[in-house]
Write a structure and sequence with these properties.
The protein is of the alpha+beta class and 241 residues long. It has helices at 2-28, 67-72, 92-103, 109-129, 132-136, 141-157, and strands spanning 59-61, 160-179, 182-198, 204-207, 213-224, 231-239. Strands 1, 2, 3, 4, 5 and 6 form a 6-stranded antiparallel β-sheet that branches. The model is unreliable at 20-60 and 62-78 (pLDDT under 50). Pfam families: Tim44.
Length: 241
């Protein structure tokens, strides 16, 4: 009799356990529409928009000075450094670099010059192709307007430009100016290019598709120091000597 009672009690509890598990599964297994999608480590994450600047979109990432470091940068007086190999020691450019480091100790002039090389090749190539989308994200409004006028002039004339980079031999900082927390860094580029402009019938109207030419350009980048956006923007271009 005791064995029969034990078996009956066991069966009742087993039945209750199965019922509870079935109810939990029926509830927890349902989708409500508010679940997060599965994590995909290869998916591109959307970043919050950068803080607005006076001239729009920016270019040239400041090495070693992300939003956290920019926000926490001390305002103490910077110790003058020997900028030999970067700019002329005790020059206005050297004093300008000292001013930048006063507000952003993570600034790396050599890393900046490397980033400026990438920006230079990207912008020149996009301009030759008439790639407005790329240019819009890299230039200040004033520079973008000038590039747009040149592209429209080519299009009206039925011209196309072919540009191939052979090398960028040098990108050196030649000027630094800091006023009202806005830093401007001027870079002189020495490069070798193959460039040719063709007319509507494919004929070469300027340059040569076979000749390597030496090109000197002087570009100026600007950024508000201490801002959360670590990028610089191209604000001026000119042909160098």
């Amino acid at each position: 009799m005791m064995q029969d009672s034990l078996d009956l009690t066991t069966l009742i509890f087993l039945g209750l356990a199965v019922f509870v598990i079935w109810k939990l599964r029926s509830v927890l297994g349902q989708k409500t529409g508010s679940e997060r999608p599965p994590f995909n480590p290869l998916a591109r994450r959307e970043e919050p928009p950068p803080a607005a600047s006076r001239d729009g979109d920016n270019v040239v990432r400041l090495p070693g000075a992300g939003p956290e470091r920019a926000a926490a940068a001390p305002v103490a007086t910077a110790v003058p450094r020997n900028w030999k190999g970067v700019v002329e020691p005790n020059s206005p450019a050297a004093r300008g670099l000292d001013q930048i480091l006063q507000q952003e100790p993570g600034f790396d002039p050599r890393g900046f010059a490397d980033g400026a090389k990438v920006a230079y090749e990207t912008i020149v190539t996009a301009f030759a192709k008439g790639d407005r989308k790329t240019l819009k994200t890299l230039l200040s409004r004033e520079v973008a307007d000038g590039f747009e006028r040149a592209i429209q002039g080519r299009e009206r004339a039925g011209q196309t430009v072919e540009t191939t980079f052979v090398s960028i031999d040098r990108a050196e900082i030649v000027g630094v100016d800091v006023r009202n927390r806005v830093a401007q860094v001027t870079v002189r580029y020495l490069s070798k290019l193959i460039t040719a402009t063709r007319g509507p019938q494919g004929q070469v109207v300027d340059g040569s598709p076979d000749k390597v030419v030496d090109v000197t350009d002087v570009w100026t980048f600007a950024r508000t120091l201490g801002s959360r956006d670590p990028n610089w923007q191209l604000v001026a271009t000119e042909a160098g000597q």
